[in-house]
Q: What sequence folds into this?
């Protein structure tokens, strides 16, 4: 019998290099296939911001999503990259990768910092400049300049995702993304969590980060339009300063739609988000689903142990 979806916790995750990360409310687990074919599992308890009052406050809780992407997700993504650099054929253990090849320290932080600056420049600053220039060229109102800016931002996003999806390594990454979605979908459907069962479920999921990015693009047009006419420099600064506001509003929208999928109107609203996920997911192989299941079961075991301990304490 299918599990009652209304009583299910909202688990999520992300793809890694040859792996999948799964996050619960108290624990996170990541499974990665090492070069020797073995599946390595790492897990940890979620502390700090995850247990703060922010995590329970509407709107502000969306900041956790930013933290997930910029800190937790990046750390495990780098961990999975380091796992692929290990030379197990040389007799070294999985815990002692070649230190000269590892991504860590100053090199790691500088790479992440530069990547963030480039992303902000391409997806937020450049569209402002182009939108403002095109708007002036065609004598558009400030509202339509914001719309043009938003359309340019969306086009950049689509071209970027489509372009990197053509790379062989990214195709495998997107296949692990598909494995993560299939696993969550199977769990929420209440079926037995086996590779064979999970393979039958859809690639798309309403709480996907890809759909979230689309929501950010759309909501940014609405938020920025409220500011009215601004000089170009102040317009650029406003985009940077209000980015966290746009992110938390997009998170609340995604959370609301995911909780109201029984409504025909909501199902129409999430269609664009689901369609966009076709660019960032690929059908996974059974061995990829095996990795996703390993990660999910490790996280679920820790979550259920936490719940049992809490019940016992009461």
A:
């Amino acid at each position: 019998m299918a599990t009652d979806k209304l009583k299910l916790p909202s688990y999520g995750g992300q793809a890694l290099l040859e792996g999948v990360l799964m996050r619960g409310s108290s624990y996170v687990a990541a499974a990665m296939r090492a070069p020797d074919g073995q599946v390595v599992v790492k897990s940890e308890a979620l502390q700090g911001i995850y247990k703060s009052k922010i995590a329970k406050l509407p709107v502000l809780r969306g900041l956790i999503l930013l933290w997930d992407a910029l800190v937790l997700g990046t750390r495990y993504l780098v961990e999975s990259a380091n796992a692929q650099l290990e030379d197990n054929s040389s007799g070294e253990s999985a815990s002692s990768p070649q230190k000269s090849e590892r991504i860590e320290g100053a090199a790691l932080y500088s790479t992440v910092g530069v990547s963030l600056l480039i992303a902000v420049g391409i997806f937020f600053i450049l569209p402002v400049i182009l939108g403002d220039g095109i708007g002036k060229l065609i004598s558009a109102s400030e509202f339509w300049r914001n719309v043009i800016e938003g359309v340019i931002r969306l086009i950049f996003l689509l071209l970027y995702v489509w372009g990197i999806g053509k790379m062989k390594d990214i195709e495998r990454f997107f296949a692990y993304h598909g494995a993560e979605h299939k696993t969550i979908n199977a769990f929420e459907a209440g079926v037995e969590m086996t590779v064979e069962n999970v393979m039958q479920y859809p690639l798309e999921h309403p709480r996907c980060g890809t759909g979230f990015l689309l929501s950010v693009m759309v909501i940014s047009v609405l938020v920025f339009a409220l500011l009215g006419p601004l000089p170009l420099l102040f317009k650029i600064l406003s985009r940077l300063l209000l980015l966290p506001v746009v992110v938390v509003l997009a998170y609340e929208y995604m959370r609301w739609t995911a909780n109201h999928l029984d409504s025909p109107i909501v199902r129409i609203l999430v269609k664009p988000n689901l369609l966009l996920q076709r660019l960032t997911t690929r059908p996974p192989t059974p061995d990829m689903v095996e990795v996703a299941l390993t990660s999910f079961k490790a996280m679920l075991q820790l979550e259920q142990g936490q719940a049992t301990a809490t019940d016992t304490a009461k």
Observations:
- Residues 1-7, 87-100, 307-314 have pLDDT under 50 and may be disordered.
- The chain has one domain: 11-313.
- Residues 11-313 form one domain.
- The two ends are 30 Å apart (CA to CA).
